[in-house]
Amino acid sequence: MVVDIFIPCFIDQFYPETGFSMVKVLEKAGVTVRYNKNQTCCGQIAFNSGFWDHAKAMGEKFIRDFKDCSHVVAPSASCVGMVRNYYDEMFYNSALHNEYRTLKKNIYEITDFLVNILNVKDTGATFNHVVTWHSSCASLREYGLKDEPGILLRHVRGLKLVEMEDKETCCGFGGMFSVKNEPVSTAMAAHKVEMALKTGAEYIVSTDSSCLMHMQGYISKHNIPLKTIHIVDILASGWEL
User: Fold this and answer.
1) Structural domains of the chain ordered from first start
2) Could you give the count of Cα atoms lying within 13 Å of 20 in the half-sphere of its Cβ?
3) Rounded to two decimals, what is the model's pTM?
């Protein structure tokens, strides 16, 4: 199987190691990974900010960059949710309507792809830490992830997964929401971090690096003994041991 990967802006600019981790996980699962160097943003930030013309232009490029791919996989439920849910509003009955409909069926968030397409539950990872799970708004409400992340984490050797209260509550990032409504956004991050601390976990884990960056900013500013990590980095860890 050949898989084309999409590397979102946050991964590309701030967490490139997570992109490499995804490649490692996919290759270990037996697939051939391709990367189109011409790919750029899916347009989510522009779309959510109300700049639909800019978002549509970016979306047109995105569709053309991945139009001939049978499987597109990304380490972001947020970006994939954007393509699956909101491209309809921009490309319905347009010249790219058919290409978009095909892409919509073929693009996946990484944990969904591993569990439900490749039937992989154990990546062979080892991570000797206590972690708690943050369900991002995008993964839960837009993409519709359910048990896939938990299935994968429970097969990681040495990992202990503990659930926090309010695990499905927003962390306060919300893209431009965190910029335009900073006090509310910060209070939401504080609540989420407090819930994570109560579990005794060492790490907060999620599918979305934007949420993790938001919470890590609060954690670092207040010197809280807690860390954040993308699930893909866990799934690719410990293979040398």
Assistant:
1) 2-117 (no CATH), 130-235 (3.40.50)
2) 6
3) 0.93
Residue 103 near residue 175, CB atoms below 8 Å: no
Q: Please, where are the H alpha helices in 66-143?
A: 77-91, 97-106, 110-112, 137
Nearest Cα to Cα of residue 108 among 61, 170, 66: 66
d(CA 30, CA 36): 20
pLDDT in tens, 175-232: 777 667 678 889 999 999 999 999 999 999 999 999 999 999 999 999 999 999 999 9
Helix (H, G, I), strand (E, B) or coil at 227: strand
Residues paired with residue 74 on neighbouring β-strands, in sequence order? 109
- With beta carbons less than 8 A apart as the criterion, state whether 227 and 216 touch: yes
Pairing mode, strands 160-162 and 130-133: parallel
Please report, in angstroms and rounded to a whole number, the separation of the first and last CA atoms in the chain.
28
